């Protein structure tokens, strides 16, 4: 069984890298951020307050089809996800689902914020993906333009900084580099180069474990 943990802040490229690693190693992949996004969106739909733990907890048994809702991908829902994910009860409600996915026969790749620290601290390989705030905001800007949106660079930078601060400073499972993780800064890397480097880092960690 091979478990690979990929963590990092918003738009660092961790999802792209996790999916490429999944193809390379023939493993299933889970974007754990989608679970928190689904909780955030269902609080909104229920007219609840994302900062209120009881409202956020009530949204944790969302219907599975919500995970395919394109609305989950917006930066607004990313911010909601970041607000509901502060509550320890919400994190606890989503832990087992993530651990079950990680420990399926053969193993898995998960990307998120706390995979290497909390969900799978004994993962066989851990990568912490990062990039400068400006590069990350620029990626979100380009994505929004490509999807016909009218993004504003200054508000994207402000949203990403606010999310970074909240994710790094919360009491439960804050975003930080896990023990044993390798850092991969994608600021100046093409997607192809980032994927090549990620595979090399994972190969070296798996080799070191043998
Ligand atoms: O794709 P992006 O990095 O923008 O966000 P995401 O991975 O979909 O995560 C959305 C929010 O969910 C994050 O800002 C975190 O607050 C929260 N999250 C978390 O707390 N733990 C995880 N394992 C994954 C996401
Ligand atoms: O999962 P996360 O929010 O960390 O990022 P992502 O969804 O993998 O990547 C965000 C955007 O940046 C996507 O449009 C990627 O194609 C792009 N990207 C990039 O331009 N260069 C990289 N080295 C990685 C991702």
TrEMBL record:
Enzyme Commission code(s) on record: 2.7.4.25
Name any GO cellular component annotation: cytoplasm
| Domain Cytidylate kinase intervals | 4-202
Positions that bind ATP: 8-16
Encoded by which gene?
cmk
Which coarse location class applies to the principal site listed for this UniProt protein?
cytoplasm
Q: Name one Pfam family in it.
A: Cytidylate_kin
Q: What keywords are assigned to this protein?
A: ATP-binding, Cytoplasm, Kinase, Nucleotide-binding, Transferase
List, in alphabetical order, the Gene Ontology terms for molecular function in this entry: ATP binding; CMP kinase activity; dCMP kinase activity
Q: Offer one example of a GO biological process linked to this entry.
A: pyrimidine nucleotide metabolic process
Q: Which reaction does it catalyse?
A: CMP + ATP = CDP + ADP; dCMP + ATP = dCDP + ADP
Superkingdom assignment: Bacteria
The places in or outside the cell where this protein is found are:
Cytoplasm
Q: Tell me its family.
A: Belongs to the cytidylate kinase family. Type 1 subfamily.
Does the record bear Transmembrane in its keywords? no
Annotated protein name in UniProt: Cytidylate kinase
